[in-house]
Amino acid sequence: MARQPNSKRLEGIYRKIEEYPGERPGFLARLLGVNRSEVTRALPALEDKGLLVSEDEHGRLWPFQHRK
Predict the structure, then answer these.
(1) Which of 38, 62, 63, 68 has the fewest CB atoms within 10 Å, i.e. is most exposed?
(2) Mean pLDDT of the chain
(3) In the chain, helix, strand, coil percent, each to 5?
(4) Which residues pair with 63 in a beta bridge?
(5) What is the tens place of the pLDDT at every residue in 14-41?
(6) How far is residue 64's CA from residue 59's CA, in Å, rounded to a whole number?
């Protein structure tokens, strides 16, 4: 069974996506000091926590924000 990312790591990834919207997973991974695959594997877990991220046709990540 795959190892589940911890909450602090997930929140750190999401914070970087918010801080650098529109960047690719590799860029965010370099900032965090992790492999790119760790960022991409975290995306479903972020969704499970209610932290929604959209990926555009170029692989860039954007935090999903609800309109009020």
Answers:
(1) 68
(2) 89
(3) 50, 10, 40
(4) 53
(5) 999 999 999 999 999 999 999 999 999 9
(6) 15
